[in-house]
Structure formats: structure tokens, C-alpha cells
Amino acid sequence: MSEEFYRIRRLPPYVIAEVNAMRAAARAGGEDIIDLGMGNPDLPPPDHVVEKLCEVAKKPDAHGYSQSKGIPGLRRAQAGYYGRRFGVDLDPESEVVVTMGSKEGLASLATAITAPGDVVLAPNPSYPIHTFGFIIAGATIRSVPTTPDEAYFESLDKAMYYTVPRPSVLVVNYPSNPTAETVDLAFYERLVGWAKANKVWIISDLAYSELYYDGKPTPSILQVKGAKDVAVEFTSLSKTYSMAGWRIGFAVGNRELIAAMTRVKSYLDYGAFTPVQAAACAALNGPQDIVDRNRELYHKRRDVMVESFARAGWDIPSPAASMFAWAPVPPALAHLGSLEFSKQLLTHAKVAVAPGVGYGENGEGYVRIAMVENEQRLRQAARNVKRYLQSMGVNQARASGNR
Ligand SMILES: Cc1ncc(COP(=O)(O)O)c(C=O)c1O
């Protein structure tokens, strides 16, 4: 009997898990770790959403299996969101499916559309499900950059020209996790044209649709005329309404892709708990002031983090969107690599971050910092980082206040 399971052999050890294990051990030992590692929102969901959950959970008939593709009211609520926010019309019956978090949705879609040996174009670095969802389904990944510039389109063309079999799917994620890069509508217009010309499906992950800071709302690929011919897009309630544990996300767009995914899901699950879906409707249909307030709060955190870390001697580019900063390892410590640097930050500064290499080889040289602690804790993190950098002989002059 072999224990060399085909899929397991394709899943490398999760690098980020090493830092997570160290963080857990440190906490178990009573240490106060400032956790900027995982993108797990620290804010509560809106009160009216929690109240709706409780109200529906008290109904005796709300406890059976739900609908795998999502209750009709929630699919309508998601179509309403796309109409309001992006001016995109969606048919809730055929162009919307509810998922148990967008992570599950991405994996189900990968299962639905991938044959062993298919080639998928995915960003490197990337949020792991963008590659491993397809690897689990038997695909081969060809990496493309995350930076949405001319070189990006050149690399897409090269990939089509040199890869056999020709890639059939392209994954895009803007605002990007982990790099926080953003795009404008013109980028999506060009991308949709490219995908049509090359007969490639586009899967867009828009998990950070509402976390943008420089006044320009993040676009949806579906705003491009004709995008539905080739694209689906995932969104999530996890970050927008701080409902990460509730596991509610969506895929919308191309009917064939939505139908394929819905079919696979119907074999795998019975949908999220009905009271959770009812409360998700309340989130999408109810007052939206929480979305603006959370955006402002993350914006403030971003400014505090960038400014206080710079004073500590670590220059971090200010992210225009998402809840992450993509921080180059300080040049004097670059030789450590992102994993060792993250471990040292945890041990000596009591600050947990995610090593960039955990998101793919092109993430080496960076760490991802999640803005999921309050301003006071971010300032404390910066003070701890400053002491650590000083102990390593980094930026002595700046860190001692000459700046
Ligand atoms: C880019 C991106 N996509 C998807 C997800 C997963 O979100 P969900 O909670 O909806 O599964 C995350 C979570 O951090 C993410 O960063």
C-alpha cells in the first residue's frame, strides 16, 4: 500500500506554517506577540448582521441543509451589490453562485474546469489557492508576474507562445495579496481583449474590493464590455464586513464557468448554514457605513504603520489598497532571506509577519505585513522593530532619531 498520494506529493510544506507554529509556541509560553502575519480581520462585523444571524438561528425551520449554490435572496443581494458598486448587471440565477468563502469557491472552480496536465497562468507571488487550487486539480502552473505593466503582457504572450499545451486559464488578483498592487479599468480592458484573442478564461479575485485608500475605487473586471464572455470574478464578505469566519464568498460572471462550478459544488456541499446566508443578505442589503468606516480605519493604520516603521529604520512602500504592506527585507539583512528574517522578527521583536517566500519564489526578499492590529499596537511593533534593527546594526543613525 503506497502512502505516496498523488495530490499530497504536489503540496509542499506550507512555509508560512513554520512562522505560525513559532508564534503559537511563543504565545503559549505567555509572550505578547503582535500578530501582523495572517490577514485575519480584528474588527467585528456590523451589529445588525449579528442580530440577523441570531434571529434566523432561533427559527426551528432554519437548521436543515441549505442550498449549495446559495439561497436566492443572497444571490440577488450580490447582484444588487454589483449593480450599485460597478454598474454591472448580473442574472442571480445563472451568473451568481454563493461559495463557502472565496477560497472554497476558487478550489471548486479549479476542480470543475481543470483536466490533469492543463496549464494555468497564475501570478507569482500569489495567495496560495490561486496556484494550489489548480495543482490539487492536476494542473501545471506557469508563473506570470504580478506587476501590471508592459512586461506583464509580454510574459503572457511568451507563455502562450512557448507553452504546450497552451494555457487555458489566467488568474488575476488586484488589489493583490500579497503585493497590494492595483490596476485600473484600462488594464482589464486590455486583459479581456488578450484573453479573447488567446481563448483563455480569466479568473479574477477581488477579495479586497472595498479596501482602497487613495480615493480611486477598485474596478471590477466585469465593468469591461464583453468581459462576461471570458471572465468570472470572486468577492468575499471576509474583509469588507470583517466576516472571515463566516465563510461567505461569491463567484459571478460567465455562465458556463458558474454552471460548471455550481455543478461540482452540488456534489460537495449543501451550502452555508441558512442563518449565515440570511445575515450575509443583511450585510449586503443593509447600511453600508461600516464599509466606509473600515476603509478609513485601515487607511489610518496604513499611515501609522508606514510612518512609524520608517522612523524605526525600515522603509516600507505605502500600499494603495488591500490590508497588507509588501515590505522589502531591510537591505542590510537581505542575506537572511524572508523566512529567517520573519523568524528573527518574531523572536527578537515579538512581531509576527508572513515571509514573502511563502507566496512563491518571487516573493523572496519581502515580508507581508497585515494591518490587523490597532494603531497603538502598530506603534508598539515599530518600537520593537527599531530595537531589533539597532541590535543588528541596521540604520543606527536613523533609528536613533536623526530623521
Ligand atoms: C486574495 C484573496 N483571495 C481570497 C481569500 C480568501 O477569502 P475567503 O475568506 O472569502 O475565503 C483571501 C484571504 O485572505 C485573499 O487574500
TrEMBL record:
Alphabetized UniProt keyword annotations: Aminotransferase, Transferase
Domain of life (superkingdom): Bacteria
Name of the top EC class for this enzyme: transferase
Keyword Transferase listed: yes
Pfam family, one: Aminotran_1_2
Keyword NAD assigned: no
Cofactor dependency: pyridoxal 5'-phosphate
Protein name in the entry: LL-diaminopimelate aminotransferase
